[in-house]
């Protein structure tokens, strides 16, 4: 794959983080940085899904995790060789191009086997066994190709693979005759000889499969005529007798000398899973195939120690606990955010833009304007939705005059009315009926780490808090399950009423922590937070104080 920088919003993405990924990709692409691609680590929530469908834009690619995969490290420019290529040509190619292995494919490009020095060493002894006559699987065309020779006569079945026995016609006539007669099947013999007409004639009479004349010796017309009558092939080799005999052996198709035991891997396979196999093969190189078994690259043990072909950019978050799983394996290039600074460390300097504005969508709109780049109409519509979603239609405490100004600018550009669009998208995201408390809690959950204490805060916007309060047991039970699965000190759900701009807070934790919570209590584990609508600007600082009381 080409070098790719994936732009991710946080896990359990909300509208602002998904829109920010799409818009930042458009921004970087407009700057000519085409390696930036929008991604998302989670399912679209109902509001975001509604917005992308309404505007008709494809959402960012869903990549559930970034655990190292073959695709991020493999060499996808790997050469392959057809299984019928003479071994000599294949090995010349390997030597000239510094290849340790060559995947061997059929005419359609399907993977068949691997050619490497190890397989050659193993298989050549099957062919070169001095105790028997030297035999080799080849055909007349392959021999002529390897010998850089010319075919003077195509005998019977010359284009079919046979197991040829190579016999040298360099002895006296009598002893050569004895040698030929000692073979039961002369039709499997290829004789390498020079300009000895007596030997050539004997070969034709005995109907050997082929005669190879060394050192460019051209056969006489009568010989060619007789060969045609007897169905014997004649090849003229440009090499001397010794080289010709050796090269006939190497004219065997590549597939004969390759390793057919090596099973290919796929681009989507996890590195961790295939690592034992990679270490096990002698060449420490495995072929990579697609779903149709066509070769798309190779992966070597060295490749996985090189830097991955992907990097990441973070939008709408900067804390590792909220980032896509596996992110620690890659370089972070950019962060565009409007949250508190968390725990992130980077090896290299990066583009880091963090502004205390109402949404990441606001920041990205500003970036387009500051660079004098035209915002594509669909992206402008998405950005307006991102701002209105994150600021609860410019009413949340996080809203700044910049958000208001940018929202008006986008509203004018797109012809969309702020209030009408805002109410429409908030309504699309505030549905609770028909959804499990598990779905609601996990839709927009963020995990935090405060001096080693882990906690999660989920948020849902609703038009009236009655239904959540009626189903409080279900919600508190699922919060407790979430708390345990995150190994968290506490888990909360902020239920924000968009009609009153206040919230109910549900908390699951141990008794000792609950006792430290000094918010206005409504019922056991449920608190009424008047005028609180922002998780990051209002609730998180409140929870930090409770943590201090608790002793964190
Ligand atoms: Mn945001």
Folded structure, characterized:
- The chain is of the alpha/beta class.
- The protein has four domains: 4-68 and 309-429, inorganic pyrophosphatase (n-terminal core); 77-111 and 262-301, Roll (CBS-domain); 148-250, Udp-n-acetylmuramoylalanyl-d-glutamate--2,6- Diaminopimelate Ligase, Chain: A, domain 1, CATH 3.40.1390; 437-550, Diaminopimelate Epimerase, Chain A, domain 1.
- The protein is built from 19 helices and 24 strands.
- The protein has a six-stranded parallel β-sheet. A six-stranded mixed β-sheet has the order 7-9-10-11-12-8, with helices on both faces. A six-stranded mixed β-sheet has the order 19-20-21-22-24-23.
- Helix 1 (15-30) runs parallel beside helix 11.
- It is elongated.
- Bound molecules: manganese (II) ion.
- Manganese (II) ion binds at residues 16-17, 316, 338, 359-360, 390.
Key attributes of the depicted protein:
552 residues; alpha/beta; 19 helices; six-stranded parallel β-sheet; elongated; inorganic pyrophosphatase (n-terminal core); 4 domains; CBS-domain; Udp-n-acetylmuramoylalanyl-d-glutamate--2,6- Diaminopimelate Ligase, Chain: A, domain 1; binds manganese (II) ion
């Amino acid at each position: 794959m080409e070098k790719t920088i994936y732009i991710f919003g946080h896990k359990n993405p909300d509208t602002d983080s998904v829109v920010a990924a799409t818009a930042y990709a458009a921004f970087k692409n407009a700057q000519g940085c085409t390696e930036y691609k929008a991604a998302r680590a989670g399912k679209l929530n109902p509001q975001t899904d509604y917005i992308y469908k309404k505007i008709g834009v494809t959402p960012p690619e869903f990549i559930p995790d970034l655990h190292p995969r073959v695709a991020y490290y493999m060499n996808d420019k790997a050469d392959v060789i057809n299984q019928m290529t003479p071994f000599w040509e294949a090995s010349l190619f390997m030597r000239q191009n510094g290849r340790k292995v060559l995947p061997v494919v059929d005419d359609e490009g399907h993977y068949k086997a691997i050619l490497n020095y190890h397989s050659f060493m193993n298989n050549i002894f099957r062919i070169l066994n001095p105790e028997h006559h030297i035999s080799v699987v080849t055909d007349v065309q392959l021999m002529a190709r390897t010998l850089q020779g010319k075919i003077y006569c195509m005998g019977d079945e010359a284009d079919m693979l046979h197991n040829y026995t190579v016999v040298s016609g360099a002895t006296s006539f009598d002893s050569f005759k004895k040698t030929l007669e000692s073979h039961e099947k002369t039709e499997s013999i290829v004789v390498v000889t020079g300009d000895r007409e007596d030997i050539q004639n004997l070969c034709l009479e005995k109907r050997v499969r082929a005669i190879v004349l060394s050192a460019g010796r051209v056969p006489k017309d009568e010989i060619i005529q007789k060969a045609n009558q007897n169905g014997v092939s004649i090849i003229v080799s440009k090499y001397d007798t010794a080289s010709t005999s050796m090269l006939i052996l190497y004219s065997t198709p590549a597939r004969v000398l390759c390793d057919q035991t090596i099973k290919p891997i796929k681009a989507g396979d996890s590195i961790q899973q295939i690592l034992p196999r990679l270490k096990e093969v002698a060449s420490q190189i495995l072929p990579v195939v697609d779903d149709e078994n066509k070769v798309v690259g190779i992966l070597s043990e060295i490749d996985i120690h090189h830097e991955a072909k992907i990097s990441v950019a973070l939008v709408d978050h900067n804390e590792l606990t909220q980032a896509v799983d596996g992110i620690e394996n890659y370089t972070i290039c950019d962060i565009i955010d409007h949250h508190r600074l968390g725990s992130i460390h980077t090896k290299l300097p990066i583009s880091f833009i963090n502004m205390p504005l109402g949404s990441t969508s606001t920041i990205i709109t500003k970036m387009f304007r500051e660079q004098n780049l035209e915002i594509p109409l669909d992206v402008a519509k998405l950005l307006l939705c991102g701002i209105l979603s994150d600021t609860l239609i410019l009413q949340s405490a996080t809203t700044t005059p910049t958000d208001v100004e940018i929202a008006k600018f986008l509203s004018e550009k797109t012809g969309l009315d702020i209030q009408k669009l805002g109410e429409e998208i908030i309504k699309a995201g505030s549905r609770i009926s028909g959804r499990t408390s598990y779905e609601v809690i996990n839709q927009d959950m963020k995990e935090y780490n405060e001096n080693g204490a882990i906690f999660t805060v989920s948020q849902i916007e609703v038009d009236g808090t009655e239904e959540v309060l009626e189903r409080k047991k279900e919600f508190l039970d699922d919060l407790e399950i979430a708390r345990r699965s995150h190994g968290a000190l506490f888990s909360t759900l902020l239920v924000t009423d968009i009609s009153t701009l206040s919230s109910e807070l549900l908390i699951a934790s141990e008794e000792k922590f609950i006792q430290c919570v000094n918010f206005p209590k409504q019922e056991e584990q449920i608190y009424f937070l008047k005028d609180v609508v922002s998780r990051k600007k209002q609730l998180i600082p409140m929870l930090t104080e409770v943590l201090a009381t608790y002793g964190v």
